[in-house]
Write a structure and sequence with these properties.
The protein has 188 residues and is an alpha+beta fold. It has five helices and six strands, in the order αααββαββαββ. A hairpin with a 2-residue loop joins β1 and β2.
Length: 188
């Protein structure tokens, strides 16, 4: 039991460090919002360059929510945190955070990013409804793996949201986005 408390505290401290990294300006004078938008746009460009389905979805999606870097850590009890940008036609229109907690057999730490392609206005409108958008509740979200991303065309897609996980670094079992909560934020 003591190990679980220590692990939970460690995970929360790691997430707190990540969450508190929102500062007014970096050394080049960019606001945090501009920096986050730039990182999100760069992450999306890299994904689109390597995954044909992401490239096709970019052309038809009403919006793409990109989290360029999410930190996940845990030992029995885990958590994750990241900030991202909603892009419409490549332009930043809003900012969000994603948070999540997990319990079970897990150990390690990992960084990764993900992009969610919204294919309908109805699905996109749910981002700001209620107290945040919960993945796994509301519009159907399909997590696209590497094989599906290279072999599927947009003519066969019929779901509301397609999510791509990318740039995984570190070692942790149980990577996924189910159960994450996405909430609008206002970076400085």
């Amino acid at each position: 039991m003591k190990t679980l408390r220590v692990a939970g505290t460690l995970a929360l401290v790691m997430l707190g460090v990540t969450a508190s990294s929102v500062v007014a300006q970096d050394e080049q004078g960019k606001t945090e919002a501009a920096k986050l938008a730039s990182e999100s746009q760069a992450a999306l460009q890299k994904l689109v360059a390597t995954v044909p389905l992401a490239q096709e979805l970019t052309k038809t999606a009403v919006g793409v929510l990109v989290f360029p870097s999410i930190t996940k850590a845990g030992l029995g009890i885990g958590g994750q945190y990241g900030e991202g940008t909603l892009l419409k036609k490549g332009t930043a229109v809003a900012y969000y955070k994603t948070t999540g907690a997990s319990f079970g057999l897990q150990a390690g730490g990992q960084k990764y990013g993900y992009a969610m392609f919204f294919t309908s206005d109805e699905a996109l409108n749910q981002l700001d409804n209620a107290n945040g958008f919960e993945v796994g509740v509301g519009p159907s979200v399909v997590v696209v793996d590497e094989g599906m991303g290279k072999s599927t065309t947009t003519t066969t897609l019929k779901d509301d949201v397609y999510a791509f996980i990318f740039g995984q670094k570190g070692l942790m079992a149980g990577l996924g986005i189910q159960g994450n909560k996405i909430t609008k934020i206002t970076p400085k």
